[in-house]
Amino acid sequence: MIDEKKKFQEVLNVGLEVVQTRDIDILLERILTKARHLTNADAGSIYIKEDNTLLFRYTQNDTLQKKLPPGKKLIYSTFKIPINNHSISGYVANTGKVLNIKDVYSLGNDVPFSFDPSYDKLSGYKTGSVLCFPLKTHTGEVVGVLQLINAKNPGDENVAFLTEDEPFIMHFANNAAIAIERAMMTRDIILRMIKMAELRDPMETGAHVNRVSSYAVELYEAWALARSIDRTQIEQDRDVLKMAAMLHDVGKVAITDLILKKPAKLDNNEYEVMKQHTYLGARLFSNQRSDFDKAAFLVTLNHHERWDGNGYPGHIDCISAEPLTGFYDPSGRAIGKRQEEIPLFGRIVAIADVFDALSSGRSYKEAWNEQRVLDTMDQERGKHFDPEMLDTFFSILDVIRNIMHQYPDMSE
Ligand code: C2E
Ligand code: SIN
Ligand code: SIN
Ligand code: SIN
Ligand code: FE
Ligand code: FE
């Protein structure tokens, strides 16, 4: 038992060392900026490979940027390009070759790819010359594409990219590939942590983890859109919340099977042990080095707090598990966090988690029908749940039902 715990802890710690998603975003942005300056390119984009498609990840465009008020960010929609020889970036990802094109609107008949002008039409920007590089790891695997657009001469006229510049861009492409590979490794490790939590608790299925995290992300997005929160901010928060919510119960890996798998109601002592899964999970992320660590810390620690202050673990130091100074009741127990003292991500995952627990079977209970679940949740307005967040939940019920059907339990 002890050894098993230790092993989990070790693998989990390895995971946390490499979680730096946000830093990688910043790094990729810098790489693109440098590559553009070196070639005097007006615009550029980075695409990341995901399965068999290229995901458009970043773009910079000086001409379009100059038309915006100062400080305003360029709005662009994320889109996917299939990895095949039909498009410029698809060809580069597929073949691993560099393309240096003088003018995308006058491609010869001897090339398999064509230029899709729909992006230009949408943005009102005219693409001319393109220098497109595969982002290859040291093992030669293509993980993305770096595309530079419209080289300018000193007179600010559009010209072709210089062949002499290609080796320098190769250097940036290699750095970008390493950063992307690291980010993908991080993702893999987090997914492995989630898998371990599932193995530990047979009820903690992939379906459950997917449902709770998908509900949470939808709740956050609806809540944030209603508050006019910046689109880029929402996208970033979605990503970290998704992973963090998947790990909300990761602390259960440290709870004994006798309690975790008990096919009946827990007695008081057992329940007290079970409650430890909140801060035991939070300890894994207590260094809070990245945005992901911070989100996972908040979610693991706070997903069982209640709006009325009767939840757990309350105002504690998650390392010592002692109540914080001034936050204990006469019996010496920590006082629960109340209302907005509970971090947003905690309030969100509380609703997602209870909704899913009530609507699915557990070793100690049957699944409830939807009406009973919704009635129970509504009765907890202002007691267990943040009333405003509960309104958000009811307002997106169709989306919630969709997710439920998308990830059914195996046994059903
Ligand atoms: P869980 O099963 O995922 O439940 C998450 C939360 O959903 C629970 O947090 C509780 O707020 C709500 N919930 C779940 N089932 C019911 C229910 O039948 N009625 C009502 N009103 N609410 C429900 P809670 O209670 O803090 O429990 C945390 C975790 O402790 C649970 O996660 C589960 O893993 C475990 N647990 C709780 N009670 C029992 C039990 O009686 N037997 C066993 N074996 N495990 C239990
Ligand atoms: C690209 O492939 O990089 C942009 C779209 C296209 O050229 O077809
Ligand atoms: C479980 O299946 O043990 C519960 C996971 C959750 O908290 O919803
Ligand atoms: C409870 O666990 O006390 C009630 C569950 C709920 O808040 O819906
Ligand atoms: Fe929990
Ligand atoms: Fe849960």
Describe what this molecule looks like in 3D.
With 412 residues, the protein is an alpha+beta fold. The protein folds into two domains: 179 residues, Beta-Lactamase (2-Layer Sandwich), CATH 3.30.450; 206 residues, Hypothetical protein af1432 (Orthogonal Bundle), CATH 1.10.3210.10. It is built from 16 helices and seven strands. Strands 1, 2, 3, 4, 5, 6 and 7 form a seven-stranded antiparallel beta sheet that branches. Helix 7 packs across helix 13, helix 7 runs antiparallel to helix 16 and helix 8 packs across helix 12. The chain is elongated. About 4% of the residues have low confidence. One succinic acid (SIN) binds next to helix 7 and helix 13.
From the spread of the alpha carbons, the general shape counts as elongated
Bound molecules: ligand C2E, succinic acid, fe (iii) ion
| Mean pLDDT across all amino acids | 87
Computed Rg: 25 Å
The oligomeric state of the chains shown is single chain
Total helices: the number is 16
Strand content: 5-15%
CATH homologous group name of the largest domain: Hypothetical protein af1432
Helix content: 40-55%
Could you give the order of the helices and strands? HHEEHEHEHEEEHHHHHHHHHHH
The largest sheet is: 7 strands, antiparallel
Task: Draw up the topology in text.
Elements: H1 2-17, H2 21-39, E1 41-50, E2 53-61, H3 62-66, E3 80-82, H4 88-95, E4 99-101, H5 118-123, E5 130-136, E6 142-152, E7 158-159, H6 166-200, H7 206-226, H8 231-246, H9 257-260, H10 268-275, H11 277-283, H12 291-302, H13 344-359, H14 370-379, H15 387-395, H16 397-406
Helix pairs in contact: 1-6, 2-6, 7-8, 7-13, 7-16, 8-12, 11-12, 12-13, 13-14
Residues 201, 203-204, 208, 212, 249, 353, 356-357 line the site of one succinic acid.
